[in-house]
Design brief:
Blueprint (H helix, E strand, L loop, with lengths): L2 H10 L29 H4 L4 E5 L4 H7 L5 E6 L3 H15 L2 H8 L9 H11 L5 H13 L2 H5 L11 H7 L5 H11 L4 E5 L13 E3 L9 H14 L3 E6 L3 H8 L11 E6 L2 E5 L1
């Protein structure tokens, strides 16, 4: 089954994305937005020349691009996040900031005039690559944006506008149009892989792994991170929704964690850095 068919099955509810043993796989849902406090770590995402980043919602990648890295590679176990990130990139190139926020962040209600969503997509489509345009055109031909965005193709968490604007530097007025200019000369290399099978062939300044450790074998993850750390001089960042000490204990193999805050575990060579 190809990506178009699989996506349509998710949109139409013909496949239960939650009725499987694995938490994530090649056809897993797409996060609508980051759930991380990116506003607290500009020093992590910015001013890096070579970046490897999980795609997820695409927000981490878009924020990292504001510093104009020389190279950015993006990976995900699922095939769908790439299509969503390319949709966001094409939208930034063609929509005003207000239109972008309306399309992706404002409450997407079934009562909203479908006409405007179609107009937005008509503006976006020419900036998409051939494969990505075929993917989204197929879905828009048979579904409203409300049906697509609220299907199991996407995660179910609510998008709170005020918080999304706080989290994402690229959504600030000046930064949004700066990113538009940067994207004119940016090419992202996409890698479809899970973290445990991911191999690196670049000297990255930053490898950003989000909270993947929560969904894989922690010992295998730790071994993979140590392997990455032996090959690069930059930093490798793991994000966890825990206090610093509890986050490190969870990373080292503990089974429970405190969820009232968030922490970063940063690897640089053999050095651990914990940061709230």
């Amino acid at each position: 089954m190809d990506a178009l068919e699989e996506a349509q099955n998710l949109v139409r509810g013909n496949r239960n994305v939650f009725a499987k043993k694995e938490t994530f796989d090649t056809n897993s849902f797409v996060y609508k937005k980051t759930n991380e406090r990116l506003q607290d770590m500009p020093d992590i995402l910015e001013n890096k020349k070579k970046v490897l980043c999980v795609i997820g919602s695409g927000d981490q990648v878009l924020n990292a691009l504001l510093s104009e890295p020389e190279k950015i590679d993006a990976f995900d176990i699922s095939i769908f996040p790439r299509y969503f990130l390319e949709l966001k990139i094409a939208a930034i190139k063609t929509l005003t900031r207000e239109e972008y926020i309306s399309f992706f962040i404002d409450d997407i209600d079934h009562r909203r005039e479908e006409y405007y969503d179609d107009l937005f997509f008509e503006k976006i489509a020419p900036e998409l690559g051939e494969e990505e345009r075929a993917f989204w055109q197929f879905l828009f031909d048979y579904n409203d944006w409300y049906d697509i965005y609220n299907s199991t193709l996407f995660s179910s968490e609510p998008v709170i506008k005020s918080y999304a604007l706080t989290q994402n530097k690229y959504l600030r007025e000046e930064e949004y149009y700066k990113l538009r200019e940067i994207l004119k000369s940016t090419k992202i290399r996409y890698i479809n892989s899970d973290i445990l099978n991911l191999e690196i062939d670049e000297e990255y300044d930053l490898i950003y792994l989000s909270n993947i450790v929560q969904y894989v074998d922690k010992h295998a993850y730790k071994s993979k991170v140590e392997d990455f750390a032996s090959k690069i001089k930059g930093i490798i960042v793991t994000y966890l929704f825990s206090k610093p000490d509890a986050a490190l204990e969870f990373f080292e193999g503990a089974t429970s964690r405190d969820l009232d805050t968030n922490s970063l575990i940063i690897h640089q060579g053999k050095q651990f850095i914990k940061r709230k």
